[in-house]
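Aim 2 progress. For Glycoside-pentoside-hexuronide (GPH):cation symporter, the working sequence is reproduced below.
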Amino acid sequence: MKRKFGMADKLGYMFGDFGNDFAFILSSMFLLKFYTDVMGVSAVVVGTMMMAARLLDAFTDVTMGQIADRSRGNKKGKFAPWLLRMCGPVAVSSFLMYASWFAEMPMTFKIIWMFFTYLLWGSVFYTAINIPYGSMASAISAEPKDRTALSNWRTIGATLAATVIGVVLPLVVYYTDENGNAVLSGTRMSIAAFWCSVGSVICYLLCYFMVTERVKAETTKQKFSFMGLIGSLIQNRALIGIVVSALLLLLSQLSLSNMGAYIYPNYFGDVKGLSLASLIGTAVTLVLSAFTVRLAERVGKREMSAAGSIIGAAALIAVYFVHTKNVYVWLIFYGISYIGLAMFNLVCWAMITDVIDDTQVRTGQRQDGTIYAVYSFARKLGQAASSGLVGVLLSVIGYNTATAYDEKVVNGIYTITCIVPAAGFVLLALSLWFLYPLGKTKVEENARILKERRDRSGM
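Predicted structure tokens for this construct:
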């Protein structure tokens, strides 16, 4: 008899995303900066690499989803064993991306190393651990309320990882040069990446031992057809809606995150602002997390997320016109904009389980791993789109190590930091309202239908 759903599951699932984001948020906040400022690689080249990697992810993510759906599992369940298998490889590959000891190597070597390690981490090992981890949520509990709680705690885990990385690392990995400018240290960055990798392994193991899979997922036996899969996904409006929304969320969130490494040291001349921004983001998320489950039950996950997106867009558009030189004024508007990120982030993982349920209601088939894989790919695409777009725009405004503190360049940095995520927020709200169909009433109806089916089958 398996124990009832409870705090151990919530905390364990939280640690899982803590482990994920020791690598994911580290790369989102520092990888572009590391390669442009430490390794001397063009921002366009780095952005192009990140976009190119997503082409490979279109296959590796879906393939991993199919592997997860078809795996037999063991006494720990169908998805949890993958955390144990892959926690070491994903940690090592993440560390190798920050190889500052190669800074003096020829540019061709550095670019090849950058491509190799980024693909090894993001397209292979991170995929192999993240997709089973995300799919596991629907196997922990069948109740929508429990899944919203898991989504809530997952976001808390990501927020804690972001706090550790965003608050502590800027105080450690930067130093002040003879001109008074904040400069990223390659050696310190490599050491920080090592300890983040150690932390990720510990968190994955805590998740593995604390979480219990309760909902039995049947092993997929149908012959796999990639084109057939694509055809069925294209007809799935709920999946298309959440995929587009996830892409736009990551575009907004990671544009803010990526540009944080530029706007605080270069525009404001205050690296501490990067740490304060992370603390503010953590505070906003933790405060909202106390109300998320009840608010989602009352108004619906889609509805609250769309409203938050409008708030985020309004704050960033306002601070663009204010064009402040005061880092504390900027941080006030940043905190307001973070409401938009937090409201969707806290429930987005529950929304993907809603999509899995909706697909099962319509087709009679449950494809946890495959659907989560498509969603994961969209998030990676959003990450790459933000890094690629930021890389191109930094090149357009003339950013390089020689012009990094020129007035024209730093004003361009300010504009990018405001406008790109604001546009993403507006499009996100439109996607949730007009494309994603699973409002509060539909989600409750699907949960009722599936419960009746399980009761009839005795599962």
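The longest strand covers residues 174-176. This observation will guide construct design in the next reporting period.
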